[in-house]
């Protein structure tokens, strides 16, 4: 792999980020939806929005990304970083991109005084979990989703 650059997603990344984001949505069997792509890009392009992104760039193109945000931890009175989305393009897999993105989140957490970097993944996502088990500790917490009232 040539020099991997990790940096904030910027406006010039739109095309290659979008290709990766489409791949991410396809992995999770989400239909093509231009409105979702536009909305998420608008979040990443808005410094006042809570969603931020790191691009893994090789040869001037985004080959992976991490979308994340700060979250409050009222029980401890601390904050954490929540990794919403992590994706590496198929051609870049097995080259340490995901591990590098997670490590960069650890650096950001340290700089920002966050107490944890947290994420969830599907139990069946064994490939990603093999990475996650090397770089983090699985928690005993169970996740629930409730639908909005109405």
UniProtKB/TrEMBL annotation:
Keywords on record: Acyltransferase, Transferase
A Pfam match: Acetyltransf_1
InterPro entries with a match to the protein in the record: Acyl_CoA_acyltransferase, Bact_Acetyltransf, GNAT_dom
GO molecular function: acyltransferase activity
The enzyme's E.C. designation: 2.3.-.-
Keyword Transferase: yes
SUPFAM superfamilies xrefs: Acyl-CoA N-acyltransferases (Nat)
Signal peptide (UniProt feature, chain positions): none
Highest taxon in the source lineage: Bacteria
CDD domains given in the database record: NAT_SF
Domain N-acetyltransferase: start-end pairs: 4-150
Protein name stated in the entry: GNAT family N-acetyltransferase
Organism, scientific name: Leucobacter albus
């Amino acid at each position: 792999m040539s020099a991997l650059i990790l940096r904030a997603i910027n406006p010039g990344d739109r095309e290659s980020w979008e290709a990766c984001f489409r791949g991410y949505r396809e992995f999770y069997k989400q239909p093509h939806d231009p409105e979702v792509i536009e909305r998420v890009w608008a979040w990443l392009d808005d410094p006042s929005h809570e969603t931020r992104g790191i691009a893994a760039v090789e040869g001037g193109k985004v080959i992976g990304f991490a979308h994340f945000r700060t979250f409050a931890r009222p029980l401890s009175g601390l904050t954490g970083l929540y990794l919403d989305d992590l994706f590496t393009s198929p051609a870049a897999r097995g080259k340490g991109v995901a591990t590098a993105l997670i490590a960069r989140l650890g650096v950001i957490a340290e700089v920002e005084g966050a107490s944890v970097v947290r994420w969830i993944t599907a139990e069946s996502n064994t490939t990603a979990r093999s990475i996650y088990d090397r770089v983090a500790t699985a928690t005993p917490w169970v996740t629930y989703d409730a639908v909005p009232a109405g």
